[in-house]
Amino acid sequence: MKFTDELINTPSLEFSMLARQMNISGDKIISLGLGEPGFQTPSPIIEALFDAVGAGHTRYTNSNGLYELRQKLCDKFKIENSIQTDAENIVVTPGSKQAALLAMMAILEPGDEVINLLPCYVSYIPQLKLAEPTCIINNIDVLKNTYGPDWNAIYAKSNCKTKLIVINTPNNPTGYMFSEEDVWQLVELLKKYPRMYVLSDEVYEYLNFSGKKHLSIGSVDIIKDRVVTVNGFSKSFSMTGWRLGYLNAPPTLIDRVGRLQQHINTNTATFIQKAGVAALSQCRSFLKPYNRQLRTNYTALKNLCDRLGNIELNESCGGLFAFINISKTGLRSDEFCSGLLQAQKVATTPGVLFGENWDCNVRISLAAEVEEFQVGINALQLYCEGLD
Question: DSSP assignment of 170-200, as one string?
């Protein structure tokens, strides 16, 4: 298939144009739209980066990544995720987005079908089209009342041509986390279709403000050789700009992933990988207060939605976001977000970006400091009250 802009097209929204105009004019905007943590990268990680540069770690590494880092990641997978793996099955990438794309490229072939759950991270569909332009993407909406997978619809769309199902837990934008029932439904699906792989994006793993146990799909022994687990340092360690991700893949795929990495990136920056080693060596005690902050913001938003009659909120368990339902306002998500930005200078994200059937939702980032978040949702309240 000839490459065209259509392969990677995203909706053009009034909200986006308005936000650009307000940024150019220097207007003060309260952002409830950002997808990155609100805390600074921990100082030991920054110090490790400078130490690595000073020590001359600025040259090529093995394309799959520093063995020291891959061994640390191997230990992490075994201890924290119950995924039994080896350093040889891990590839370090420039960001988890790159890891997901490499996995898709390694798995998909012309004519393959894919199950993709909506609403989803905005890059999944463009990445699938870039990985294999001829693949058939079966987008399946999650259940509206819980944001959990609609297993009946997934089974109905799966067939012998289905090569991949894309999973994100905790989910962006809904905050849904896979349950044990979801995991076993997935196991049964893979038992029925033996050529199907799972791409499990777990980049929000440590951002869990519900107390619910994070479940890694690759920990299930019976399907471990058909699961690619994608993760990264951006969200857990507030390293979004560092671009450091990784994946664990079965032996049947890892050679192909490694060769793709070699010819696309050569390797991930060596000194950043050294910083990754330091990150994994640190006590992650800083995540406890941050998860409490996320919980405080989520609770404040939930209380507001319960008080107001025209917006609603399903349970969010993890990640950085909540996904409010605005259908009672009668507005499309682009209209709602544009109006909120213009009237109250609060930026949110239109739900239609995450799937065409989610135009009745808006994504709210929980990442802001508690005080700023409260100012933001106070403004949201004023806007919603003005819609009645």
Answer: S-TTT-----HHHHHHHHHHHHHSTT-EEEE
- Burial classification of residue 46, based on how many CB atoms lie within 10 Å of its CB (0-12 exposed, 13-18 middle, 19 or more buried): middle
Tell me the per-residue pLDDT of 173-228, one tens digit each, with 9 for 90 and over: 999 999 999 999 999 999 999 999 999 999 999 999 998 999 999 999 999 999 99
Cα separation, 197 vs 387, in Å, equals 46
Q: Which helix (H) or strand (E) holds 137?
A: strand 136-141
Q: Give me the CATH number covering residue 369.
A: 3.90.1150.10
Among 230, 265, 281, give the residue marking a domain's end: 281
The parent domain of residue 19 ranges over 5-41+286-387
Residue 42: partners with Cβ closer than 8 Å, 6 or more residues away: 237, 238, 279, 282, 286
For residues 342 and 273, membership in a common domain is answered with no
Q: Domain boundary at 231, 259, 281, which?
A: 281
Number of domains in the chain: 2
